[in-house]
C-alpha cells in the first residue's frame, strides 16, 4: 500500500489510472476524505479474496468456540428471559419484546 493517503480530489482526477493499478498490478490506493475517513481502491479479485479470508477466519473462530464448549473449557451462559440476553450484550430490546 502507498504510505500516504491520496486526497479525494486527486483520486478523482486519476480514477482510471488507480483502477488500472488495482486490477492489473494489485496495487491498492488509500483515499482520505479527512483524518478519520479513509477508503481503499482494490481490485474485485482482491476484494473477493479478503472476503473469503474473513469468512474463513470467522468460521475457524466459531469452530474453536464449539470445540472449547464441547471440551468444557469455554463457559456457556444460559438465559431464561430475552431481556437478560439484551442486557448481557449491552443492547436495549425493541418495544414489544
UniProtKB/TrEMBL annotation:
Role of this protein = Antitoxin component of a type II toxin-antitoxin (TA) system.
UniProt cross-references to InterPro entries, sorted A to Z: Antitoxin_Phd/YefM, YefM-like_sf
Residue ranges the record marks as coiled coil:
none
Q: What is stated as this protein's family in its record?
A: Belongs to the phD/YefM antitoxin family.
**What are the top taxonomic ranks of the organism?**
Bacteria, Bacillati, Actinomycetota, Actinomycetes, Streptosporangiales
Q: What is this protein called?
A: Antitoxin
Amino acid at each position: 500500500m502507498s504510505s500516504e493517503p491520496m486526497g479525494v480530489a486527486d483520486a478523482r482526477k486519476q480514477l482510471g489510472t488507480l483502477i488500472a493499478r488495482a486490477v492489473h498490478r494489485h496495487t491498492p490506493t488509500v483515499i482520505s476524505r479527512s483524518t478519520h475517513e479513509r477508503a481503499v481502491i482494490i481490485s474485485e479479485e482482491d476484494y473477493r479474496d479478503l472476503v473469503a479470508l474473513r469468512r474463513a477466519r470467522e468460521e475457524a473462530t466459531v469452530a474453536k468456540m464449539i470445540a472449547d464448549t464441547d471440551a468444557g473449557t469455554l463457559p456457556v451462559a444460559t438465559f431464561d428471559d430475552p431481556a437478560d440476553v439484551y442486557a448481557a450484550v449491552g443492547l436495549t430490546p425493541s418495544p414489544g419484546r
